[in-house]
Amino acid sequence: xxxxxxxxxxxxxxxxxxxxxxxxxxxxxxxxxxxxxxxxxxxxxxxxxxxxxxxxxxxxxxxxxxxxxxxxxxxxxxxxxxxxxxxxxxxxxxxxxxxxxxxxxxxxxxxxxxxxxxxxxxxxxxxxxxxxxxxxxxxxxxxxxxxxxxxxxxxxxxxxxxxxxxxxxxxxxxxxxxxxxxxxxxxxxxxxxxxxxxxxxxxxxxxxxxxxxxxxxxxxxxxxxxxxxxxxx
Length: 233
Description:
By secondary structure, this protein is mainly beta. It has 4 helices and 15 strands. The protein has helices at 3-10, 17-27, 185-188, 212-221; strands spanning 33-35, 55-59, 64-68, 72-84, 97-100, 104-109, 112-118, 123-136, 141-146, 149-157, 160-169, 172-178, 193-197, 203-208, 223-231. Strand 13 and strand 14 (203-208) form a beta hairpin. It is elongated and about 65 Å long.
């Protein structure tokens, strides 16, 4: 039995904390607030991401990187370190293994690649990369500008759009969205709401179709930041 295979068999619970963390990043949860059309309504679609937004950013808490070019926004991570076999703080899900031999294991899950190199001294070199294109201008990913902000519109179906507000201020790039408030009357005071129901009749959220005036009010009262990145010089 190879050193790598022995290591896999030793960890029978087959959980990988790192993979769980990345899967949450990749899939997330669907928004409870959707829009009937791209925002802001009746504004022109931008054919390119403006130059002022382009560059490389870092999210300091989780050390996630963000790269923006003329067409796409890509989130990525590239980490390498050495440790001992006994001190690894995660276990391996063998169903994710794409290749292995006497001294190496390679795993893949979505945008994550993980490589483990085993040495006779019981040390392990760990290298993992993560890459996810979170926005790419197309018919289903529409970019618009309004009041100094940029709006990322993701098509989720006919008359069904997920919306993120993107703001660059003092070198900080923040993403924001409309959250479902504890008191739904707060949103009803701003704009009309259409309830989204599952086949079971359960409320799955609300759909909005705000005017520009109403969108401005939503920006002031209902948009909350989801993540912030610092621009690297």
